[in-house]
Amino acid sequence: MGKKIANNEPQDTTSEPKVIPNNKSKGAARELIWLSISEAAKIGGVQNKTIRRALKSELKFKIKGNRYFIDFSSLIIYLHRNKKLKNKLQEHGIGQYIREWRIDNLNKK
Questions:
Q1: Is residue 67 helix, strand or coil?
Q2: Which of 38, 36, 45 has its CA nearest to residue 82?
Q3: pTM as predicted
Q4: How far is residue 31's CA from residue 49's CA, in Å, rounded to a whole number?
């Protein structure tokens, strides 16, 4: 439902509508990945309370109903800022499956 269809294209109900990229982004439109607190903790290799503490200041999140959903990219950036958390990510979290992280904006806040 959130996808836009160009007005001059014929609408075909059998195929997926084309996404019109946002002028602010370079290339294709980017959809955010939202994780629950428990999913974020499992991916990061940390405890739920670590994620809940980070909600107060460092993570981007939204509340839907009475559940918190955390932006995946802000979670990864947060886990890379602290050496202890980065080690937990590498040893117990998703980092054990990724050879090299390509994060360009770690120093941006």
A1: strand
A2: 45
A3: 0.62
A4: 27
pLDDT mean across residues, the chain: 76
Task: Label residues 13-39 b or e (16+ Cβ within 10 Å = b).
Answer: eeeeeeeeeeeeeeeeeeeeebbebeb
Instruction: Report the alpha-carbon distance of residue 28 to residue 92 in Å, rounded.
Output: 32
Interior angle at CA 95, CA 53 and CA 52, nearest 5? 10
Tokens 């903790």 correspond to 41
């800022």: which residue's tokens? 81
- Say if residue 72 is exposed, middle or buried (CB neighbours under 10 Å; 0-12, 13-18, 19+): middle
Which residue did the predictor score with more confidence, 8 or 55? 55
**Mean pLDDT along residues 4-28:** 47
Q: Compute the distance between CA of residue 15 and CA of residue 18 in angstroms, rounded to an integer.
A: 9
